[in-house]
Amino acid sequence: MDDAFELVEPYFAPPLDPDFRPAVLANKAFLMDVEESGMGVPLRIGLERGDGSISTFDTMCYGPHSDRFAANLTYAERLVKFLLWQRGGWKVMVGGPAAIGEHLKAVYAPTGARAFDYDFMGGVYEHDFTVEIMDAGAVPDTKETTMPLGRHLDGNRIGIDLGGSDYKLAAVQNGECVWAEEFPWDPKTQQDPGYHRERIMEGLKVAASKLPSVDAIGGSAAGVWINDRVLVASLFRGIPKDLFNSQVKDLFVNIGKEWGVPLTIVNDGEVTALAGSMELNANAVLGIAMGTSEAAGYVTRDGNITGWLNELAFAPIDYAPSAPVDEWSGDAGCGVQYFNQTGVVRMAEAAGIEFEAGLGLPEKLVVVQDLMAQGDERVVPVYETVGIWFGYALAHYCDFYDVEQCLILGRATTGDGGQIIAEQARQVLEAEFPELSDKITLHLPDEANRRVGQSVAAASLPAI
Q1: Which of 59, 86, 374, 442 is 20 to 30 A removed from 285 (C-alpha atoms)?
Q2: Separation of first and last alpha carbons in the chain
Q3: Residue 451 pLDDT
Q4: Is the pTM of this model over 0.85?
Q5: Each residue of 203-230: pLDDT tens digit?
């Protein structure tokens, strides 16, 4: 983090993470200083996706003659990082001082600090990733498309939610869940795609046995999915590229053909938001699933979804120099280290909780939850820390989304810990962001829906 870009200590200090420096506070302080300096100029960021749609974000920065100009570089880089993973894009258009654009071009390059993002976005949109520098007025206006998602409740349906440590299945009859179960698996380390196919088919057959027939299958999983084909997904990170291209990309298309029913699979964050919209009978919903990773999705005021990525797991929320680094993307302070089982276990270890050798993250999370149920006093600060993180992160998300309802669910919210997370987040909003506290309602579903709500919503995806 550039010394010229000032960080802000939060009013609520996470008990187990005193170095936490929320992105939202640093950004707000930066913009206030820019305004008070009288030397602010427009900064307009545009992102173009593969279908030609464009997202534009307008903000301000210090002008070229300001002695604080260097602070612009960190602000703009973290902003572009967030926008890329929220909205997606193969081309970033930087409208503002040329030095900011040049910095971003160097950082988001094959040999730059954000080489992972350069490669990822280029691969997703099948374009060479590009940063273009122009005047703010030359950046095109927003050109978005939205579409309806799911909400089909007729017939006998199977919903499947594919997580990194388990997958959840639901059998649904005319909108009513008649059976739901979780199946443990270990997909990330597998190099043979046959493992994924066999385990998924095995679960589908169990779900089918709970129904008189199967009319449709809907699914959700982390990653980028287009027309039921997977382009990028951490579930398959262990599979060699040639096998991925030949056996994984069309895996679910082929499963649908084998079952002979409509099959739809989309990003799990979108289904999280859909689940929230359906449960609450409301729109302008941001859904956050805290499971193996952090999944996010958004339902607009019109009840539709966008063409955005919404991969907030890789969007930065903590600007602390000591923020943990994600082993996959190589970046620090992103949601993937905070709002999931990784974040809970990381803080449990900081609280002095020891785990048996050889336990994986899912098993460690169960230990933490069991200790919580037993009243172990070391566990409460773990969930308080996650809740404070989330309160500041939610305020940050609201700088990029129009939110009236926020739904949190997933394995990491199971038990009384989920209540603590929600309550701490509400306290942060009330004290630090009262305008958001008055606008946003934060929801924590009942225990069953927290764990399998996504698979039920996923069942509603295909039209029969």
Answers
A1: 59
A2: 52
A3: 54
A4: yes
A5: 999 999 999 999 999 999 888 888 899 9
- Look at residue 278 in the predicted model and tell me its pLDDT: 87
| Phi then psi dihedrals of residue 428, to 5 deg | -60, -50
The C-alpha atoms of residue 293 and residue 269 are separated, in whole angstroms, by 11
Note whether 79 and 61 are within 8 A (CB): no
SS3 141: coil
Residue 25 included in any domain:
no
Which residues is 408 bridged to in the sheet?
A: 288
Amino acid, res. 383:
Y
Average pLDDT, the chain: 94
Q: Are residues 366 and 444 in the same domain?
A: yes
CA-wise closest residue to 327 among 361, 368, 356, 364: 361
Task: Kindly give, in sequence order, each residue whose CB lies less than 8 Å from that of residue 281, ignoring residues fewer than 6 positions away.
Answer: none
Domain count, the chain: 3
7 within some domain? no
260 and 297 fall within a common domain: no
Q: Please provide the DSSP assignment of 206-235 as one string.
A: HHHTTSS---EEEEEESSEEETTEEEE-GG
CATH of the domain at 216: 3.30.420.40
Look up the domain containing 206 and give its range. 147-266
In the listed set 211, 241, 266, which residue is the last one of a domain according to the structure?
Answer: 266
* Last residue in a domain, options 266, 290, 305: 266
What does the block give as tokens for 139? Answer: 């950046």
Q: Alpha helix locations (H) across 405-446?
A: 416-432, 434-439
